[in-house]
Amino acid sequence: MKLFSYNVIDTPIHKLSGLTKLICFFFLTFAVMFSYDIRTILGVMIFSFVILRISKIKYSQIRLMIIYVLIFLVTNAVISFLFSPEEGVAIYGTRHDLFNWFGSNKVTLEGLFYLFTKFFKYASVIPLGIIFLLTTNPSEFASSLNSVGINYKAAYAVALTLRYFPDTQRNYQDIGLAQQARGLDLSHKAKFSERFKNAVLIVVPLIFSTLDRIDLISNAMDLRGFGKKKKRTWYTARKMTRLDYLALFISAIVFFGIISVSVFINQSRYYNPFI
Amino acid sequence: MNRKPVIEFKDFTFHYHSQAEPTLYDINLKIFPGEKILIVGPSGSGKSTLGHCINGLIPFSYKGKISGSLTVAGLETKDQDIFNLSKIIGTVLQDADGQFVGLTVGEDIAFALENDNIIQHEMHERVRKVAQMVDMESFLASSPFELSGGQKQRTSLAGVMVDDVDILLFDEPLANLDPATGKTAIEIIDDIHKNSNKTIIIIEHRLEDVLHREIDRVLVINDGRILTDMDPHELVSSPILAENGIREPLYITAMKYAGVEVKREMRPGYITTLETEEFKDTLANWYEGIKAEDQQERKSPILEMNDVSFSYDGLRQTVTDISFQIQEGEMISIVGKNGAGKSTLSKLLCGFEKVVDGVIQYDGQDIIDKTIKERAEIIGLVMQNPNQMISKPMIYDEIALGLRLRNVPEEEIGPRIEKVLKVCGLSPCRSWPISALSYGQKKRVTIASILVLDPKIIILDEPTAGQDFRHYTEIMEFLVDVNKLGVTIILITHDMHLMLEYTPRAVVLSDGKQVVDTATSEILTNSDVIKQANLKETSLFILAHMVDIEDGTNFVQRFIDYENKRKNRGVQR
Fold first, then answer.
1. C-alpha torsion sign, points B261, B266, B268, B269
2. Is A209–B112 a contact, with Cβ atoms under 8 angstroms apart?
């Protein structure tokens, strides 16, 4: 299984330049982060699932990532409710009590609606991030970052990180197996604290073998002239195509659409169904 | 010679800041344009440092004190930066995987051009041309995962040739290649030398493999000094190799065993030029005189695989119908080219992957349903790179790890570790930190950390990869000692010397299928098997034919027997 790794498939999403995808990603993310309108948020969510489908990403590739993100989001929602249960009431200005918990604390419809909105706000952005990671050729992305003025050394560092992700993952699995054979328990039977301690036993050898590799690759790069000049060209650089402009156009429309809904219809960042 | 040298060392000394002593002393050396030079020497002799000085990694990446002078193409290297030097010298590093910078073959070859600001369409054109020279043009869009070791090396070669450098420097080019691929690599280097007349410098300790093709001069370096500068014929007929821990070609060893005095006039540098007329009879007499080792009766099998098949994805079988037995106390090799299913097989044995079909029996009992942890009581695995296994800063804790994870009481751990430390010759270092150890010692620690769990069988993945002759011998003799304690040892390897010297029997895999399970001497002389497993014919076999010994296989077998007797070892205990 290759998590987080770029796969070459021929879809319109893969054909977009890395820079286009990054800008589109920012457009949509900013829009969703700005707006607390559940209608537009669900709209973006559906949109991102459609894109996910178009880019032919299989569920099995991203299952693990989805699970972790869901755990994180649920924890986030529970904790924010525990700390400020009245947030919803404060924002929407009304109060519809549902039931009591812990004596005088009340669960309100407003509170639940606020949490629900917030949950989907984050959830709708995740597929976009996944699409970006899985459909972008790291080198080509580095070249686009460089073309908008980012230092090529920084851009290349990003590309190498993305590239070594699958390698490191494979290495982690191998080391993990060898350590399990010595008696390390990573299964669900072990206690959480135990599992954490055991994971350290895998991470240490992983770091050392990765450091070896970094030394080697940086020598290899020096020996072939990396960092010699102020600029460099890119073998994989792509020109912007019609498809790129179309994608940028669509995401710009979505962005301005969502902002307009907030500004002109809701006249607030929040959509209030309670008045 | 009145030409100007392209590389010239004059009273050159180099001292790493981090070291107490200089690594190179008073080097005086001239290399002329178009020469093909081999630099041999044991690990730590300074041969890699010499290479780093030539290509500019010293002083660019590794700092130290330089005295004397080193000029490359007339330029003093101290005053040059690594980038200028990279236009003159192309370096191919030993780990073809680690130096793969690009995401695809094309991109990797283009890397130097990208850094030189070549415009895109010219870049694509030049990449295609160079790829053609190394026969990789149909792989331009492939990623490194899809390539074999040899293809990766061709890619690295193309990556330095794209700059049209005058000098090519190969730093241990054979280290990670199987014998057949290594042979091809030497042929490619030779072809490039002949077609382009570039200056070639090869740093390598596997002398016999490099001498597959012609070399102008061989430099022997040890303890930071150049000891000799000879042509191959003179070198192999001198005692210098043995004195400096460099393995001489096997056919030379055989000649010496037979009592032949190896002389320059026999042209012994390459097996192809060797003139055998003078000592034919001596060798034949020696061969006739060796008594065959008695075949000892086979003990009961400790491990048995019956029709074992496995598939990662349920579609394509990675290994198919593997059946073999391993006797208690045996030392056996599993060989085959990359992707033949060797690692999968060891994963199946350790329980990391579950057998789809077939039976694995230990001592007559089916162990398929045992967990990884339970299997570890029987079978231990030592990975190739010790850094992949060591997770504690102290030797004692590292070896204790497996026992502590099994909740063995501390009073019991102490004596068990003492025992293992003694076996592994690590007793004096029991309280040392791991960081104070050499590579070979680290390897011992990883073996110790498995031995302490008291497994009946140990699997070692390429135990001697990248080791020079001395370390190789050290590790292998240590394993023989472990084997003497009654531990069965399975070696996954493509080192032919190792198979020949240490494992009387080997199982050969190809494309997930078992090709043969027989005596090593038969494997290394059977051209079909050799081809399927990416091995090469041993020079002993060729020698046998050159001196008209008909049964070459038997010649190889007797050579092994003779060697074992010299070392006072039986074949099977």
1. positive
2. no
Handedness of CA B419, B420, B425, B431 (dihedral sign): negative
Q: Does A55 reach chain B within 8 Å, measured CB to CB?
A: no
Diameter of chain A by CA atoms?
70
Question: What is the rounded CA–CA span in Å between residue A16 and residue A249?
Answer: 13
* Encoded tokens for A239: 């020109």
Q: Which of residues 135-154 of A touch B (CB under 8 A)?
A: 137-139
- Beta-carbon separation of B388 and A181 below 8 A: no
Instruction: Give the separation between CA B99 and CA A214, rounded to whole angstroms.
Output: 10
Q: What percent of chain A has pLDDT over 70?
A: 95
A265 part of a folded domain: yes
Inter-chain residue contact A175 with B389, CB threshold 8 Å: yes
Domain identity same for A154 and A93: no
Q: Is there a contact between B450 and A182 if contact means CB atoms under 8 Å apart?
A: yes
The parent domain of residue A167 ranges over 149-235
Element (H, E) at B548: none
**ipTM at complex level:** 0.79
Number of separate domains in chain A: 2
Average pLDDT of chain A to the nearest whole number: 86
A163 interfaces chain B, CB cutoff of 8 Å: yes
Mean pLDDT, rounded, for A34-40: 91
Do residues A183 and A201 both lie within one domain?
yes
Closest Cα in chain A to B118 = A233
Please indicate, yes or no, if residue A270 is contained in any of the structural domains.
yes
Size of interface A-B (CB pairs under 8 A): 155
Query: Residue B312 phi/psi, 5° resolution?
Result: -75, -40
- Identify the pLDDT of residue B125: 94
- Nearest CA to CA, how far is A24 from chain B (Å)? 24
Tell whether A123 and A159 lie within a shared domain.
no
Asked, for residue A207, whether it belongs to a domain, the answer is: yes
Residue B570 pLDDT > 70: no
Residues A14 and A117 grouped into a single domain: yes
Query: pLDDT over 90 for what percent of chain A?
Result: 23
Q: DSSP class of residue B28?
A: E
Mean per-residue pLDDT, B349-358: 89
Task: Look at B98 and A217 and tell me if their CB atoms are within 8 Å.
Answer: yes
Evaluate the omega torsion of the peptide bond into residue B409 and state whether it is cis, within 30 degrees of 0.
no
Quick check: is A142 in a domain? no
**Hey, is the C-beta of A216 within 8 angstroms of any chain B C-beta?**
yes
Nearest CA to CA, how far is B352 from chain A (Å)? 7
Q: Is residue A76 located within the same domain as residue A120?
A: yes
pLDDT-derived band at B516 (thresholds 50, 70, 90) equals very high
Please give the pLDDT value at position A5.
Answer: 60
| Statement to judge: residues A50 and A101 lie in one domain | yes
Residue A252 predicted with pLDDT over 60: yes
Looking at the structure, tell me whether residues A243 and A201 fall in a common domain: no
Kindly report, residue by residue over B414-461, the tens digit of the pLDDT. Answer: 999 998 898 888 888 888 888 888 777 888 899 999 999 989 999 999
Domains and CATH numbers, chain B: 7-248 (3.40.50.300), 253-289+541-573 (no CATH), 301-540 (3.40.50.300)
Q: Is the pLDDT of residue A202 over 90?
A: no
Give me the residue from A138, A139, A225 closest to B83, CB to CB.
A225
Is any Cβ of chain B less than 8 angstroms from the Cβ of A202? yes
CB contact under 8 A, A137 and B103: yes
Cross-chain Cβ contact A225/B120 below 8 Å: no
State whether A217 and B350 contact (CB < 8 Å). no
Mean residue pLDDT of chain B comes to: 90
Residues A22 and A133 in one domain: yes
Q: Tell me if A139 sits within 8 A of A232, measured CB to CB.
A: no
Cβ neighbour number for residue A83 with a 10 Å cutoff: 8
pTM: 0.84
